[in-house]
Amino acid sequence: MRCFIGVPVTGELASTSAVLANGLPAATPVRNLHMTLAFLGNCRPEQLELLNSELAQLAQQSSPFAMYFTQCEPFPASEGPFLALTGEPSAALSHLHQQLNERLAGLGFERESRRFRPHITLAKPGHAQPTKTGEWLLAVDTLWLYESQLDANGRPTYTSLSLFPFSCP
Question: Which residues does the Swiss-Prot or TrEMBL record annotate as the active site (predicted)?
Fold first, then answer.
């Protein structure tokens, strides 16, 4: 099964994201909104067992924090193909991402070669959209292990396999 680790987008940010993507083709369904921390690819059941243990430990050692997104812009480049909320990672997010990658490498997962660019994909409109500035807040207080399944048209559906609330004050 194809898996990734992320932070769900809920509440006010989910509502705002839906408004920003309203009317665009291939808008991300609200239930699929998330910020990816690590894409794992295909995982075997025995890997998931070890992964759940590592994620539980990491969450126990992590404190909640906020991630601020400041742009709604074409992503990953100026021509898209996606529209996303983007922002610079905070020190807390950078630390969490580093700790997560170290644990994943210890389990035999490949490290991502691209620089981590926190974003929330809102749509795949097919053409560049104008950039908007603002301040959109994501509460980072839980890690989710997701499964990604593609339908017959190649559209993904994300299902939470497990979640790990942060428990360090």
Answer: 34, 119
